[in-house]
Amino acid sequence: MTMDTLVMWLATGLGLGLSPWASGTVGTLLALPLAWWLLGRSRRWQLGVAAILLAVAMPLCQLASDTLGGKDDGRIVLDEIVAFPVAVLGQAVARQPLVMAGAFVAYRLLDATKPPPVTQAEGIVGGVGIVLDDTVAALYAWALLAGGVALWRRRRTGGCR
Predict the structure, then answer these.
(1) Contact 36, 95 (CB under 8 A)
(2) How many CB atoms lie within 10 A of CB 118?
(3) Burial (CB count <10 Å: 0-12, 13-18, 19+), residue 45
(4) Consecutive 10-residue runs of the chain (161 residues): their mean pLDDT?
(5) I need a labelling partner for 20 at 20 to 30 A (CA). Which of 76, 90, 112, 141 fits?
(6) Are the CB atoms for 85 and 50 separated by under 8 Å?
């Protein structure tokens, strides 16, 4: 296997990014077991692994982008795969399947609709921009999840004490 083939294999999420429909969502499915596994580790470990994955993805996405015409091609899904775990970092409740599914849906909606500053991050050229817009969408999803969990817990315990 050549280095170019390996880069494309990784960047396309082991080929899931080649899906003819919703390639970003299909590719992001690989992030679910990664996120679930990370949540079983300490917060420091979660942050460290997430930072390493994001940093490694930037040049890989850049190389894949160069091969595919120099843009954030829809077949490149490594950015979604490494960014999604950010949406659940430190939130152990996300190991529950319904909570993880909710975080996934929120992340995909935010990544697809690109509210500011996701749009601005996407405008950054190269691998940094390819990964950064997904990371910002994941941070939005993280905030929604944290807020939703806090409201659920508050309601469950009867409000403020």
Answers:
(1) yes
(2) 21
(3) exposed
(4) 93 96 96 97 98 98 94 94 98 96 97 95 93 98 96 82 54
(5) 141
(6) yes
